[in-house]
């Protein structure tokens, strides 16, 4: 445990000791703010890797040079482009290569996976999710239930207890046990987008399987942020976007995880497309879908190469840094930012105080801290923005900040404190 100090000298000394400090130079920081930017919204859109434009331009050049033949003649042939992303992705989420594929977009992938893993039959019809899930997840789950001709009663939400901001995990386990053979699917956001709460995915998976349910996770706020072990945890499926902590362009490509035990199960129903078809026979154009083994079999259409080129630029940075080192810095950086916020709250009792609604236990959170401002409303957030801070406002009075370990520094955390003090004034 470091003895933190709210000083520029301390912050810079921490940065000097930072094993990942050179990675900051691999990203481009926004320039639109009047004051020097403090970018704390990697939980919404990560920064652009400097190599992104290089990789993107290479594909544009190959498209110009080869036209359609770029599928086979490009320096990174488009026909197999997604395969370059597989091992890099598997390392980030703790999976085997056969268990992951990069394709489509997040909510599209969640729907495709639920077609296979939400199969209501007889009594077993219900989906369990967390209350106040990200709206897109909520809409996806509601529509899946409706697609099967079921009412909203078959979607069961777990709420925080009265007076709490966080969901107690014992309440999740109790509800799973209560639903028992009525439970078809547990589908939860691994990290809640609003509070930043990290759920124990290993224990939730085990609890769901114990009553015969399938278990999946939306990892939009977890991939590239949390040290995941999806294979070891036995998760049935998961999906995540590439544009938050994975820094892979606005609306960029998404990842899919399907556990190895389902790799060769051709009885699983799915919505099929030709890029998920056995690639050794794909161009025979034969009737009757024969899926690729593993997650590859959930692909639909040709790889979106331009989006994947940007994604590749980011994945290579993650591979170089390693998730173990990223996780270690994440915890130190977030703990220091927590200290700064607490210090400011103590010194501004009469004007404005701050409550962290994110768990203070570092094993229950990632890089995000959700700050409830008491005493000032959105005007505080707007004043903070004028100080150069790029953060995120959520009604009614929560500011979300996320120091991303690949490009944020301890000095960023100190400067955030300075900006917050100025905004309070």
What does this 3D model show about the protein?
The chain is an alpha/beta fold. The protein folds into two domains: 8-49 and 323-424, Aspartate Aminotransferase, domain 1 (Alpha-Beta Complex), CATH 3.90.1150.10; 81-321, Type I PLP-dependent aspartate aminotransferase-like (Major domain) (Aspartate Aminotransferase, domain 2). The chain has helices spanning 8-17, 51-66, 70-73, 83-93, 106-117, 135-147, 169-179, 201-210, 230-233, 305-321, 323-347, 378-386, 410-424; strands at 27-28, 38-39, 48-49, 100-103, 126-130, 155-158, 183-189, 214-218, 237-241, 254-258, 353-356, 369-374, 389-390, 392-394, 398-401. Strands 4-10-9-8-7-5-6 form a seven-stranded mixed sheet, with helices on both faces. The protein has a four-stranded antiparallel sheet with strand order 11-12-15-14, with helices on one face. Strands 1-3 form a two-stranded antiparallel ribbon. β7, α8 and β8 (214-218) form a beta-alpha-beta unit. α5 runs parallel beside α6 (135-147). The two termini are 32 Å apart. The mean pLDDT is 96.
